[in-house]
């Protein structure tokens, strides 16, 4: 890969590695103090990426919440909000999802060749749909984002997206918050799924920072495999 953004992957999980439970309502693993920290991290990035499954399940806005941070971005000549990015393989996205209807920054949807054409018609006026190859090729996505001026990309899930980015060796920084409880339900979604990870026992990540946020633990890892 000739050029790509700096990739920061952010996630909150239970002690046993779950990012949600199996109930219809979204489980809050974080705290107000940590939500504010995440908002500050967002404000320092150029784009934010989630998978289409997260768009469907959580209907997130993915906006910078703090008015002062929005003003600071504008003072630096940046849009108040980040460019929103999602990846979809099936093309199953609702044009009325808040991902598309909130914020003034661009919305980018990367899809495989087989679904990009029809999806572009359905999302006309709501987002730009980019053909990322067939199958969808992550290097194409990151290269296109770099060409659009995205220097720092925040990746926020879900588990399939985490697994894809980590197994592809393109994560430069992992910010992992651990909540002080267990889920214990094998049907609930996990932080990552099965895969061959470059960050193995022989090639471990480096723990760069460990911070207490109330009753939560923030661990900042540098995988050390993204940029050679």
TrEMBL record:
It holds the Pfam family RibD_C. The keyword Electron transport does not apply. Pathway: Cofactor biosynthesis; riboflavin biosynthesis. Keywords: NADP, Oxidoreductase. Signal peptide: none annotated. The keyword Flavoprotein does not apply. Residues 5-215 form the Bacterial bifunctional deaminase-reductase C-terminal domain. SUPFAM superfamilies: Dihydrofolate reductase-like (SSF53597). InterPro entries: DHFR-like_dom_sf, RibDG_C, Riboflavin_Biosynth_HTPR. It comes from the Bacteria. This is RibD family protein.
């Amino acid at each position: 890969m000739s050029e790509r953004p700096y990739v920061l992957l952010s996630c909150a999980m239970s002690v046993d590695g779950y990012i949600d439970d199996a109930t219809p309502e979204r489980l809050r693993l974080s705290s107000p103090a940590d939500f504010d920290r995440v908002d500050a991290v967002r404000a320092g990035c150029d784009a934010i990426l989630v998978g289409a499954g997260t768009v469907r399940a959580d209907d997130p806005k993915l906006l910078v919440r703090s008015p002062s941070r929005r003003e600071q971005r504008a003072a630096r000549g940046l849009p108040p909000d980040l460019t929103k990015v999602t990846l979809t393989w099936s093309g199953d996205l609702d044009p009325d999802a808040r991902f598309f209807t909130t914020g003034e920054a661009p919305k980018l949807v990367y899809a495989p060749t087989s679904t990009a054409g029809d999806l572009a018609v359905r999302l006309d006026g709501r987002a730009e749909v980019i053909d990322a190859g067939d199958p969808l090729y992550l290097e194409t996505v990151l290269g296109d984002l770099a060409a659009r001026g995205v220097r720092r990309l925040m990746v926020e899930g879900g588990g399939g997206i985490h697994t894809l980015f980590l197994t592809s060796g393109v994560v430069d920084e992992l910010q992992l918050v651990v909540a002080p409880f267990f889920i214990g339900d094998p049907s609930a979604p996990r932080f990552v799924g099965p895969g061959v990870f470059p960050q193995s026992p022989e090639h471990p990540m480096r723990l760069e920072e460990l911070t207490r946020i109330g009753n939560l633990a923030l661990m900042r890892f540098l995988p050390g495999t993204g940029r050679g």
